[in-house]
Amino acid sequence: MQPPVKENFLVINKQRRHTIENGRLRRFLLSLAPALGLGERAFSVVFVTDEKMRQLNRDYRGFDKSTDVLSFPGEEKYLGDILISSETAYNQSRKSSTLSFETNVRRLILHGLLHLLGYDHETDNGEMRTIERRLRRRFQC
User: Fold this and answer.
1) Over the range 76-96, which residues count as b (16 or more CB within 10 Å of their CB) and which as e?
2) Does 104 have pLDDT greater than 90?
3) Which of 67, 65, 57, 103 is nearest to 87 (CA)?
4) In terms of pTM, does the model score above 0.85?
5) What digits encode the pLDDT tens for the residues 76-93?
């Protein structure tokens, strides 16, 4: 019998507009975390409303609009927090002919985790984009 896999993450749903499939999301995170080499480092995924995301984006980045994902780095063994606007993620998936809400949420989590690991697509000459594409194919997101 295999020992239980330790969950080094927390999923918090602070919105009620869109259903979050907790079981499937946890299975995804349990497979993604070791692939990224997170080890013992913990992180949180928090689902929020567009209104809350707009406030955070304005307060921390100076952009007075909602966005799909924000990452806030932690310290030491706590990798940090990934905040996802479920409304924006849902609207993005509605506009896509190939992207479901669940797949988009996975994609945003992956993107947020890469930021928490120190990647920055705005300054790294495509390194993050390359890694993200490879992992999207691997994890079908």
Assistant:
1) eeebbbbbbbbbbbbbbbeee
2) yes
3) 67
4) yes
5) 899 999 999 999 999 999
**CA distance linking residue 80 with residue 73, whole number of Å:** 4
Strands (E), the chain: 9-13, 42-48, 69-73, 78-85
CATH of 9-138, one of 3.40.390.30, 2.40.50.100, 3.40.50.880, 3.40.30.10: 3.40.390.30
Residues sharing a CB contact under 8 Å with residue 100, sequence separation 6 or more, in sequence order: 93
Give the closest residue to 20 by CA, choosing from 111, 75, 85.
85
Per the structure block, which two tokens stand in for 30? 């349990």
What does the alpha-carbon distance between residue 101 and residue 88 come to, in Å, rounded to a whole number? 10
